[in-house]
């Protein structure tokens, strides 16, 4: 059972609405109180990041909906902290309704009672008028409270031009809940989007803050607790399109332990099947990663023609020669692999795409129904290149690790605009754990439970890191982890290793072997010490 503090949820707009409604209707917290908590929390985070704001000017762009209502609370709170506040409403005041209207009246009352020029509220006239105003005020900061999570189609005027306008301002922008123009489920840009330096989101992050274009548009993401009970968030995260985020605590709870009398065969035997004349590095890296992930005994099964090459570099990993033909591995070599009785097998790194290699892979998946498998690279290509229905052999003990191109070849026509839903759909359809590599990587089990890697970094954008990831997966499977925890753990620790490398070196210089070397250190950093 995954505890709420172990793996925090990231929600779709639909799931977030459901959590709001449940909290209001069943838990008895008024919507106005939730809005007040949201605005107060956002204002506190803004002051922590950009303060002290006493005497500084903050321009707050407010729509007429709940996101604008949050912005009006932010305005009131920052005004109380001494800031000069200019609120720009994108609608007429009479068009603001319900809780946002109540907060607008509070702000207007404050303006009247204080009789001060330190608080101004105006409806948007023209951008040139707004430009003249802000040029006079010299803002320290902009706050985007225009539309929030409900947007599903391209921005319309005047919001579209206003978004482009704020992106041209020299001062930074903080987005409330999600940058305007960013789809809250997919991270897609809907025409144009606010380029935020900081996003302050409510109750739980939105999935769209981590996928699509969000990594370059959302900036630093902060989550504000607004009073929605944790059990409510953990209930709605089971809805389609929602994910959980990997954390050190989650992975620490999964990490295999060793008994005092452990020996190499008792802590997992893994096999890596890969390699070809052109590609000997891929199985070597995958094998080393399996060792570094804790498997007690790792074997590298490879074509006989490259065995001596691999044996000379894999000093801690025995090699197993496989018979070959002019078209790749001999299909009968499957028996050599299965006779080793490994606890888990990785098939594919550097294997090549010969016709007989494809037959070898198909025979292996047919004849090993009870062995946990990781299919990567040319193992996946073998499935994609055949007309045989490989899915009838697929089972819940498999992990498939495609990048986007391999996924498309496997699935045929697939829309990756919503990457989370695509992974969930095909994991269920194929009955496997599916790990779609990317930034971020996403892994889903057949039952829909989904994790998003929280440690990914552009440093991983180099050849061979996928081989390392696949090796980690098979090493963890061999130790008895079920496929979803194995894949999510591999994602988390692989990303942590890349982050650790980048702390002291230029991330662009990372090569896949560096990642393997960092894995033991990153694992100790993240899992070797209990949190204080």
Helix fraction, binned, reads 40-55%
Instruction: Return residue spans where pLDDT drops below 50 for at least 5 consecutive residues.
Output: 1-5
Biggest beta sheet summary: 11 strands, mixed
- Mean pLDDT reading: 95
CATH topology name of the largest domain: UDP-N-acetylmuramoyl-L-alanine:D-glutamate ligase
Strand content: 15-25%
CATH arch. level architecture of the largest domain: 3-Layer(aba) Sandwich
CATH C-level name of the largest domain:
Alpha Beta
Total domains: 2
Give me the secondary-structure category.
alpha/beta
Number of helices: 19
Name the overall outline. elongated
Number of strands: 20
The span between the termini is: 23 Å
Rg estimate, integer Å: 27 Å
Q: Let me know the CATH homologous superfamily of the largest domain.
A: Ribokinase
Q: In which order are the strands of the major sheet placed?
A: 1-9-20-19-18-17-16-15-10-11-12
């Amino acid at each position: 059972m995954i505890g709420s503090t172990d793996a925090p949820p990231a929600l779709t707009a639909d799931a977030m609405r459901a959590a709001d409604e449940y909290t209001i209707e069943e838990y008895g917290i008024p919507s106005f109180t939730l809005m007040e908590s949201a605005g107060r929390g956002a204002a506190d985070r803004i002051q922590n990041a950009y303060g002290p704001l006493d005497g500084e000017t903050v321009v707050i762009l407010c729509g007429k909906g709940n996101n604008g209502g949050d912005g009006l609370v932010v305005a009131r709170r920052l005004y109380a902290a001494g800031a000069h506040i200019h609120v720009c409403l994108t609608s007429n005041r009479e068009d603001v309704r319900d809780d946002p209207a109540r907060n607008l009246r509070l702000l207007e009352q404050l303006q009247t009672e204080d009789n001060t020029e330190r608080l101004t509220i105006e409806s948007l006239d023209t951008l040139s008028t707004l430009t003249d105003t802000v040029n006079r005020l010299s803002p320290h900061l902009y706050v985007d409270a225009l539309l929030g999570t409900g947007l599903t189609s391209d921005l319309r005027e005047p919001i579209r031009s206003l978004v482009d306008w704020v992106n041209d301002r020299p001062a930074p922008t903080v987005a409330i809940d999600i940058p305007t123009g960013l789809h809250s489920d997919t991270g897609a840009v809907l025409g144009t989007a606010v380029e935020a330096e900081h996003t302050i989101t409510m109750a739980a992050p939105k999935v769209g803050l981590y996928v699509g274009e969000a990594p370059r548009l959302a900036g630093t993401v902060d989550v504000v607790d607004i009073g929605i009970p944790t059990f409510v968030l953990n209930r709605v995260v089971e809805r389609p399109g929602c994910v959980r985020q990997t954390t050190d605590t989650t992975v620490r709870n999964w990490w295999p332990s060793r008994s005092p009398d452990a020996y190499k065969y008792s802590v997992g035997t893994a096999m890596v099947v890969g390699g070809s004349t052109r590609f000997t590095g891929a199985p070597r890296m995958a094998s080393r990663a399996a060792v570094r992930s804790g498997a007690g005994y790792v074997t590298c099964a490879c074509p006989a023609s490259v065995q001596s090459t691999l044996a000379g570099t894999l000093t801690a990993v025995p090699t197993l020669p496989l018979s070959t033909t002019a078209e790749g591995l001999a299909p009968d070599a499957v028996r050599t692999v299965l006779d080793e009785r490994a606890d888990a097998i990785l098939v594919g790194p550097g294997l090549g795409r010969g016709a007989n290699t494809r037959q070898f892979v198909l025979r292996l998946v047919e004849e090993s129904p009870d062995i946990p498998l990781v299919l990567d690279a040319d193992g996946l290509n073998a499935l994609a290149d055949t007309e045989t229905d490989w899915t009838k052999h697929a089972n819940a003990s498999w992990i498939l690790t495609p990048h986007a191109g391999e996924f498309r070849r496997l699935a045929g026509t697939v829309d990756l605009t919503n990457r989370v839903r695509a992974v969930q759909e095909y994991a269920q359809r194929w009955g496997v754990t599916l790990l779609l590599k990317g930034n971020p990587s996403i892994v889903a089990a057949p039952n829909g439970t989904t994790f998003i890697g929280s440690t990914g970094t552009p440093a991983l954008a180099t050849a061979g890191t996928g081989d390392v990831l696949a090796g980690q997966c098979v090493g963890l499977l061999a130790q008895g982890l079920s496929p979803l925890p194995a894949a999510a753990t591999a994602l988390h620790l692989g990303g942590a290793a890349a982050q650790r490398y980048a702390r002291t070196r230029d991330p662009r210089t990372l090569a896949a072997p560096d990642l393997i070397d960092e894995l033991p250190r990153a694992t100790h950093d993240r899992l070797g010490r209990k949190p204080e």
